[in-house]
Amino acid sequence: MQTIRFAIIGDQGVGKSNLLRRFYIGTYNKYNIPLDNHTMSEIMITTHGHINIEITEVHEEIPENCDGVIIMFDTQNLESFTNLQHHVKKAKLLTNNIVIIGNKVDLKYRTVKWKDIKKMAFRYKYYEYSCRSNYQLEKPIVYLLQQIYDDDFKFLEQPPIDPPEVLNIDELLKDPKFTNI
């Protein structure tokens, strides 16, 4: 059985740990508890047979043996978007299989504008994403797998996903434990 390794990189607090939790476990943690340098792995049934998909959350060093890199920024954090260039340079040293994700698109106050994203991410596949609402959860991973295999790659068995949580932003702003906003 083949193992495909991806790394996910981005600034602290952009949602890397929640992407791993959503994809592998199906849960979302609104209290920003990081999984620093943690690898999650699961055997997935695909149109190319059983494949072990490993995703490692990293902050600085991207593993040399990775087959693709997911670079994530927070659409509410301009600094995380500005730091994309740094992360892209590091990823390009190891692979051409790169996808960029703008997370937290479900929240009302967005500081990173679409016109700026188009300028920065035009050379790479880009997805608007929401860990909280499951919006486009598997698309970045499927895109990278399609780059490795071919365009007809699909999951035959979907990862487990809890239903999206409906949240009131005013309630979240009052919660002292919530650090992502």
What would your notes on this structure say?
The structure is a single chain. The protein has one domain (2-156): P-loop containing nucleotide triphosphate hydrolases (Rossmann fold). The chain has 181 residues and is of the alpha/beta class. The chain has helices at residues 16-25, 78-82, 84-92, 114-121, 139-148, 169-174, and strands at 2-10, 39-46, 49-58, 68-74, 98-103, 125-128. The protein is globular. Strands 2-3-1-4-5-6 form a six-stranded mixed sheet, with helices on both faces. A hairpin with a 2-residue loop joins strand 2 (39-46) and strand 3.
Number of strands: 6
Low-confidence stretches: none
Order of helices and strands: EHEEEHHEHEHH
CATH homologous superfamily annotation: P-loop containing nucleotide triphosphate hydrolases
Inertia-based shape: globular
- Average pLDDT, rounded to a whole number, is 77
* Largest beta sheet: strand ordering: 2-3-1-4-5-6
Named at the architecture level, the CATH assignment is 3-Layer(aba) Sandwich
Largest sheet: 6 strands, mixed
CATH class membership: Alpha Beta
Number of distinct helices: 6
Q: Topology, pairings included?
A:
Blueprint: E1 2-10, H1 16-25, E2 39-46, E3 49-58, E4 68-74, H2 78-82, H3 84-92, E5 98-103, H4 114-121, E6 125-128, H5 139-148, H6 169-174
Short synopsis of the structure:
This protein has 181 residues and is of the alpha/beta class.
Keywords:
181 residues; Rossmann fold; six-stranded mixed beta sheet
